[in-house]
Amino acid sequence: MNRNTGVLLGRLMRNIMRSPDTIITVAITPIMMMLLFVYVFGGAIKTGAENYVNYLLPGILLMAIASGVAYTSVRLFNDVKSGLMARFITMPIKRSAVLWAHVLTSLVSNALTVVLVILVALLMGFRTSAHIVEWLAVAGILGLFTLALTWLAIIPGLTAVSMEGATAYSYPLVFLPFISSAFVPTETMPAIVRVFAENQPVTSIVNSIRALLYEGSVGNDIWIALAWCVGITIIAYVFASKEFKRKLG
Questions:
Q1: Gap between the Cα atoms of 229 and 208, Å rounded
Q2: How far apart are alpha carbons 135 and 149 in whole angstroms?
Q3: How many domains does the chain have?
Q4: Which domain holds residue 62?
């Protein structure tokens, strides 16, 4: 990370720290979903897991990240519309530093949200046999997932004409875990829904995290999850970079 990126990252993080309710707001919906499913629906849902919060947590973490990256679009949209982005471009700094500052801010703020959700899950009975290596692998997968969605968020942040447009893309991402193995095993779903659920990125990511936290080993799911994350990141990065150059010259 070069000095320019560090300075811009510090600016964005100071804004977040002055208004920590942003992180709390992002965490509220996933936490409420976790409380609802564990204490209201959990007794009726059969997953084979002894503790439903253990089964549920990986999907809730992905929901929290999907909610959090929406703020990347908002912050970038505000910088563009206020003219601040254009001012940055005229300064003697690397242009890439402007976008990378937003990306790194997303990684840091979403990491704080993930920690907050995990702390609540611990209070609800979440337990794991994972050791430090497995936890590092989980952190790596969540980091890649955040990176992929953040670069995806950059695109509407640059192209949207309204605040609503900048955040609308995140709604399908937040609810994508519902059609996956995040809440129930895909085997219980109708055939057509099951085909979609088993071949979308959330299922492989959730399965990988779940295996690392409770089984200590993963199969092909982790490679599929990594392929999804890396593929989305590369494609979104290319389109975001082109849009950045087109919009600001």
A1: 13
A2: 21
A3: 1
A4: 3-248
Picking from 188, 241, 212, 169, the residue whose alpha carbon sits closest to that of residue 57 is 212
Q: How far apart are CA 106 and CA 100, in angstroms?
A: 10
Whole-model pTM above 0.70?
A: yes
182-to-65, 153, 246 alpha-carbon distances in Å: 14, 23, 38
Q: Copy the structure tokens of residue 56.
A: 């549920």
Apex 62 CA angle, 34 and 194, nearest 5: 90
- Picking from 57, 28, 53, the residue whose alpha carbon sits closest to that of residue 43 is 53
d(CA 213, CA 230): 22
Q: Among 159, 177, 160, which residue's Cα sits nearest to residue 67?
A: 177
| 132-159 vs 52-81: helix crossing angle, rounded to 10 | 30
Q: What is the pLDDT of residues 73-99, one digit of tens each?
A: 888 888 788 776 767 667 766 777 778
Residue 182 buriedness (CB in 10 A; 0-12 / 13-18 / 19+):
buried
